[in-house]
């Protein structure tokens, strides 16, 4: 079983920055893909960014050039650096990791961007 703890959300003005963290713990053998999703009120949960165990990354078009995903394999932690935030980035952000072919989700952290 893998537990995920997220941190770093909050309230920020448009144009500001936030850094989200998601630390995995438990009986970890090898974490494969690590990713961030977000869900705005009344909308579906969408993929924001993903990073493979080898370090390859992929981003949603809406965040390319503004968000950066990274990971620390020694600490089993994934980060999301969010710059030039926009009001439309307001959502609950969730991390997800794949471990031994199972998906594990964090509890979510609120990001609110004011105009």
Describe this structure in words.
The strands form two sheets. Strands 2, 4, 5, 6, 9, 10 and 11 form a seven-stranded mixed β-sheet that branches. The protein has a four-stranded antiparallel β-sheet with strand order 1-3-8-7, with no helix packed on it. Strand 5 and strand 6 (57-59) form a beta hairpin. Helix content is 0%, strand content 59%. The mean pLDDT is 97. The radius of gyration is 13 Å and the shape is globular. The protein contains no helices and eleven strands. By secondary structure, the protein is mainly β.
Features of the shown structure:
4-stranded antiparallel β-sheet, single chain, about 120 residues, globular, 11 strands, mainly beta
What would you say about this model in short?
The protein is mainly beta and 115 residues long. It has no helices and eleven strands.
Helix count, DSSP H or I runs of 4 or more residues: 0
Shape: globular
Stretches where pLDDT falls below 50 for ≥5 residues? none
Through-space gap between termini: 40 Å
Judged by helices, strands and strand pairing, the structural class is mainly beta
> What's the Cα radius of gyration?
13 Å
Which helices and strands occur, and which strands form pairs?
Layout: E1 2-7, E2 10-13, E3 18-26, E4 31-39, E5 46-51, E6 57-59, E7 67-72, E8 77-82, E9 91-99, E10 102-105, E11 109-114
Parallel strand pairs: 2-11
Antiparallel strand pairs: 1-3, 3-8, 4-5, 4-9, 5-6, 7-8, 9-10, 9-11
């Amino acid at each position: 079983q893998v537990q995920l703890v997220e941190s770093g959300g909050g309230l920020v003005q448009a144009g500001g920055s936030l850094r989200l963290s998601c630390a995995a713990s438990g009986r970890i053998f090898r974490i494969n893909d690590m990713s961030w999703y977000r869900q705005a009120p009344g909308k579906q949960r969408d993929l924001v960014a993903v990073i493979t165990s080898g370090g390859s990354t992929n981003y949603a078009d809406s965040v390319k050039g503004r968000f950066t995903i990274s990971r620390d394999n020694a600490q089993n932690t994934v980060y999301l650096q969010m710059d030039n935030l926009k009001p439309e980035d307001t959502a609950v952000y969730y991390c997800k990791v794949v471990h031994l072919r199972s998906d594990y989700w964090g509890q979510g952290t609120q990001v609110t961007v004011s105009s």
